[in-house]
Amino acid sequence: MDIINITYIWILIALIVLPINLIYKAPYGKHSTKKWGKVIDNKTGWILMEFPALVTCPLIYFSIAEEITLNIGFIFLWILHYFNRTIIYPLRIKTRGKKIPIAIVSSAFFFNLVNGILNGYFLTIIQFESISNMYLILGFIIFFIGFFINISSDNILIKLRTNQKGYVIPKGGLFDYVSCPNFFGEIIEWLGFAIMTLNPGSISFLIWTICNLVPRSKAHHKWYQNNFENYPKKRKAVIPYFL
After folding, report:
1. Mean pLDDT estimate for the chain
2. If DSSP codes are grouped into helix, strand and coil, which group holds residue 28?
3. CA 124, 110, 184: angle at the middle one, nearest 5?
4. Which parts of 35-128 fold into alpha helices (H)?
5. In the prediction, which pLDDT does 42 show?
6. How confident is the model over 90-105, as pLDDT tens digits?
7. At CA 73, angle to CA 71 and CA 76, rounded to 5?
8. Cα separation, 219 vs 225, whole angstroms
9. Domain residues of the chain, as ranges?
């Protein structure tokens, strides 16, 4: 079985996971529960489960690529996102005393491992003759719009957690329109990455991101509605004015 067929199977698994995620909430953060077995410190778990993505994609790329091309720019964008997600973000969040199930950490570790391998491999295959490529420019702009939305939304949440002991209604930025603009930003990021690279690996990653973050956003949105009587009724879950 070649890597193309493996990637198609990987996409099929994502589509199977989608309805499961819509029914069952991943038990961490707002939805934490003790029913999923042993737990570890939230920050430690976050770093462990994101770490494979940070190192695997660049490692695979530099192990296979015969020469340095424009594709190294995609590796830089990948590292930019995952250095923040793996190192900076966990060190900034205020989650003292919070735990995450080892089962969640393990499943995320496996996903990031496979995802990093696929994207690292396919980035050695695609070729761009010029940085003026239309898809490259469009995808680059979309990626950084998503990156900005993701980071700025995280900043709002981190400030709330610093100043408040419990959960409050987030306000400001895209939080005035959706419950989870940080997830919206991440979806936009990987949409831009997929447009730039146009390969099975990045497309599979975009599909997985949607299949994971849309259900998670809907669960967060419902949680806010159930826990705050004055929660804004016009606010959507993840996509402004739509979903």
Report:
1. 90
2. coil
3. 80
4. 42-64, 72-83, 89-92, 102-122
5. 86
6. 988 877 768 888 989 9
7. 125
8. 10
9. 16-227
